[in-house]
Write a sequence for this structure.
């Protein structure tokens, strides 16, 4: 870290000397390892070390931006000149300001992490064993699209000309297996994932078992008749839908007319069954952090409390415009945007089996595809290729595929009948339990 | 970027433990992006991406190590890490480099790095003004422009040592129309392998603004699309995403070589209706998905995939070629040095046919006319694909009746290719970004207007 801090010192100093009034550096570096087993052998193996830096700074009170992953002799001059050119063109009415930081930052609760103790050979063995167990489980599973073990570690530094100097580090693993099952002319694909920070605790047996159960249960799936159906979205399908539409809770989007939640604070925008949390302090959360990307302290809040929108997510700029304080949700992605941290429906009392019983008849959706295309975050409309099961008498019956489920996310929030207890986070901040979303349009045969 | 002597040392280190092939990919990419929103120029961001990746094969096993530190020590360290993952192998001789530069500077008139951001900003302002002027229902216009100059060096143990420069520019406009209760969106995003001359030769910012505004306003006044199985006419241009998803991905070695694709081992078979000829062409000058050489240093090709319904070629990269015992088709692509290359599409389209566009709609009965499409995705193992309709119209008894929104189209690739019963006469291509195993890369999709006799329309 000494070398990079010297580079940052030089960069901030050069920026100041060249007329940049205030400046801030975000730097991140990391290492990753990934191994994929396929057809009984190691198919691919990847190792990387990477670092990148972004500079933002004000000239005449206007913010400019630049990034680099080159740290050679030209880099400092290029960054500073680019920030000046960028600032000169910035005409936005509401400008970001570099922040000196808060007096106190919350402490994250420590979680066990064994990733520094697990070597490459153990990861290779886990990948091989995961694939082997899947392939050996049933004659209908003749292939996989691979069993992957992936680990990554990273450190982020946030420093600015106002004296802010913050740092955080984390490391996580992701492991998954993707079996393909064939029976006659029927083909089905499955997926099971585990992610966290204790790789030694991963059981290849459990994960393989889950993938096998998933893929075999989908064989011979057929479309259902088109019509209106009661639908429960399983935790993973609901997570995917929530992640797609999480941008509607951004005050930045709302202030630009990109979300219909503009000005709706204090109003009921969802069913009373819905409480939506943004919790940057969640123990072991994949998006946990004591500070956001502009150095504000983070805090836990209910964004929706029993159906009522209590707040949108803010950075300092959007908060100032709205006359509120920041929620600590600044996210740098080129410019400074707003994004959720650990964001999820607060789990309810009932497990999935109890929810299915209560629904009695309908569909359980276990997978949705093409959310980048079939869902429109501006309108809230979605129409998504889905698979799952017919539910009759509260029991899972025949598998379903080649159907779409269609609706509008704003309306789904209002029509939710129950939120399940099975909250899961698939390796990222946004998570969900299974949710009974009421009635949706289904297109099938 | 890297001297041949160092490159040789790196390749030698990488193959020291028995690797039978090694490759070094070095990249230095300068990019700039501008955005305008709420009537004001907003963010201008200038970036530099720099780094290298080393790949080693032992048979069909692939090792990839990458870093953004291109110092001699760091690269040799990466080579050692790659070599350490190989356990025994035939090894290989490092052939003398045949040094070549395939860049064609004469193709680019105004290099993006030579054009001030202020000049680029004028184009965004023009699009914004035109979109806002189109209708009072337009409540937001976001305009963006992104360009890049990517310098690459690719060398390998087979004597390849080649440098190239790729220059790309893309203009984007998205709009929101609102009546206070509902929002709908529209967009346009033309791009090319060109510099700033894009605006002199191909792209009119005001026209893009009006196009995106018209689309959002049309969709604001549209009804929900009906659900069910119907005939669908898909217009030219971005409509080609249907072939990209329903078939293109399933013809990439990435899934064919493993026997995963529904089109594995089917060369020579009729997999599409006889009116379908499909091509993947990486050589079209200035096209968004073209490059002089692929990211493994092979010359790109114009490859016929399907000829009058018959499957004649797969898209193959170097590693896929080893698995399939077939030659590379110059289809190895990657987003950046941070990704190992694999077989990918370039500019993929259904070739022009002979059918009359007006007749296609007039004889379709009731169904959907999909005028502009969004993206999609596919599961190559099952062939199940989906893609979104950005702008659709309901057709009643052969006549376009009214705009419909919120529809997606789904099906199975092997099924839908056989159900294409009309192919029109004018092929148009459009630009997109394609995401897969080796990252997000620029591609063209394209087709003339086509008709699918029955397709599942996901409306509500």
């Amino acid at each position: 870290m000494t070398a990079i801090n010297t580079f940052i010192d030089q960069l901030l100093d050069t920026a100041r000397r060249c007329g940049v009034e205030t400046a801030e550096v975000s730097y991140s570096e990391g290492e990753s390892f990934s191994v994929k087993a396929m057809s009984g052998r190691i198919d691919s193996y990847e190792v990387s070390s990477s670092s990148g830096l972004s500079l933002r700074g004000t000239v005449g009170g206007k913010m400019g931006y630049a990034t680099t992953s080159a740290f050679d002799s030209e880099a400092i001059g290029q960054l500073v000149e680019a920030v000046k050119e960028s600032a000169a063109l910035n005409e936005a009415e509401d400008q970001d300001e570099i922040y000196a930081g808060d007096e106190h930052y919350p402490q994250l609760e420590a979680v066990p992490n064994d990733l520094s103790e697990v070597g490459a050979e153990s990861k290779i063995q886990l990948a091989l064993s995961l694939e082997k167990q899947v392939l050996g489980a049933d004659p209908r599973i003749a292939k996989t699209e691979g069993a992957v073990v992936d680990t990554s570690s990273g450190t982020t530094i946030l420093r600015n000309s106002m004296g802010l100097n913050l740092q955080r580090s984390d490391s996580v693993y992701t492991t998954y297996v993707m079996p393909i099952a064939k029976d006659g002319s029927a083909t089905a694909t499955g997926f099971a994932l585990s992610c966290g920070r204790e790789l030694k605790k991963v059981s290849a047996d459990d994960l393989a078992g889950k993938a096998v159960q998933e893929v075999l249960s989908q064989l011979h799936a057929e479309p259902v008749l088109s019509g209106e159906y009661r639908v429960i979205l399983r935790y993973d399908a609901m997570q995917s839908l929530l992640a797609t539409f999480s941008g509607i809770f951004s005050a930045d989007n709302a202030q630009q007319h990109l979300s219909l939640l503009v000005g709706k604070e204090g109003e009921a925008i969802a069913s009373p069954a819905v409480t939506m949390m943004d919790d940057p302090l969640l123990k072991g959360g994949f998006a946990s952090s004591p500070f956001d990307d502009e150095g504000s302290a983070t805090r836990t809040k209910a964004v929706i409390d029993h159906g009522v929108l209590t707040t949108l997510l803010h950075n300092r700029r959007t908060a100032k415009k709205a006359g509120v304080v920041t929620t600590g949700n600044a996210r740098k992605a080129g410019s400074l945007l707003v994004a959720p941290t650990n964001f999820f429906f607060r789990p309810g009392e009932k497990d999935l089996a109890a929810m299915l019983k209560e629904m009695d008849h309908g569909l359980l959706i276990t997978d949705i595809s093409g959310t980048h295309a079939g869902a429109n975050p501006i309108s809230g409309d979605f129409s998504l290729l889905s698979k799952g099961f017919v539910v009759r008498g509260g029991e899972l019956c025949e598998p379903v595929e080649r159907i779409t489920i269609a609706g509008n996310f704003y309306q789904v929030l209002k029509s939710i009948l129950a939120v399940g207890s099975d909250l899961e986070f698939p390796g990222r901040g946004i998570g969900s339990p299974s949710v009974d979303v009421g009635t949706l349009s289904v297109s099938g045969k | 970027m890297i001297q041949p002597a160092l490159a040789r040392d790196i390749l030698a280190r990488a193959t020291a433990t028995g690797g039978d092939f090694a490759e070094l990919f070095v990249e230095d990419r300068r990019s700039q992006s501008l955005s305008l929103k709420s009537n004001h120029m907003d963010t201008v961001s200038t970036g530099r991406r720099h780094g290298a990746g080393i790949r080693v094969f032992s048979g069909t096993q692939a090792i990839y190590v990458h870093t953004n530190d291109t110092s001699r020590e760091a690269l040799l360290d990466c080579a050692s890490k790659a070599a350490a993952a190989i356990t025994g192998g035939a090894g290989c001789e490092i052939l003398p480099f045949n040094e070549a530069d395939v860049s064609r500077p004469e193709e680019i008139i105004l290099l993006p790095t030579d054009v001030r951001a202020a000049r680029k900003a004028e184009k965004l302002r023009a699009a914004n003004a035109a979109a806002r002027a189109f209708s009072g229902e337009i409540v937001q216009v976001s305009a963006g422009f992104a360009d890049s100059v990517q310098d690459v060096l690719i060398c390998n143990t087979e004597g390849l040592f080649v440098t190239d420069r790729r220059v790309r520019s893309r203009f984007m406009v998205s709009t929101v129309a609102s009546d206070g209760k509902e929002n709908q969106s529209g967009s346009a995003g033309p791009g090319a392998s060109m510099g700033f001359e894009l605006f002199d030769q191909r792209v009119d910012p005001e026209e893009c603004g009006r196009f995106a505004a018209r689309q959002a306003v049309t969709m604001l006044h549209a009804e929900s699309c009906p659900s069910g199985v119907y005939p669908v006419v898909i217009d030219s241009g971005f409509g080609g995403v249907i072939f990209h998803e329903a078939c293109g991905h399933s013809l990439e070695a990435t899934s064919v070589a493993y026997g995963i694709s529904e089109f594995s081992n089917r060369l020579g078979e009729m997999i599409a209706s006889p009116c379908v000829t499909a091509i993947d062409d990486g050589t079209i000058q200035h096209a968004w998905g073209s490059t002089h050489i692929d990211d493994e240093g092979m010359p790109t090709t114009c490859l016929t995939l399907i000829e009058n319904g018959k499957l004649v070629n797969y898209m193959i990269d170097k590693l896929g070629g080893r698995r399939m015992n077939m030659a590379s088709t110059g289809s190895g692509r990657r987003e950046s040095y941070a990704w190992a290359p694999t077989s990918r599409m370039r500019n993929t389209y259904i070739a022009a046919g002979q059918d009359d566009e007006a007749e296609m709609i007039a004889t379709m009965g009731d169904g959907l006319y999909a005028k502009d499409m969004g993206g999609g995705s596919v599961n190559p193992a099952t062939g199940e694909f989906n893609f979104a309709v950005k702008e659709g119209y309901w057709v009643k008894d052969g006549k376009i009746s009214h705009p419909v929104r919120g529809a997606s189209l789904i099906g199975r690739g092997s099924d839908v290719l056989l159900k294409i019963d009309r192919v029109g006469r004018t092929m148009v291509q459009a630009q997109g970004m394609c995401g897969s195993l080796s990252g997000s890369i620029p591609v063209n999709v394209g087709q003339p207007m086509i008709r699918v006799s029955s397709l599942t329309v996901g409306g509500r």
Summary: Chain A touches chain B through 77 residues (CB under 8 Å). The CA atoms of residues 368 and 386 of chain A lie 4 Å apart.
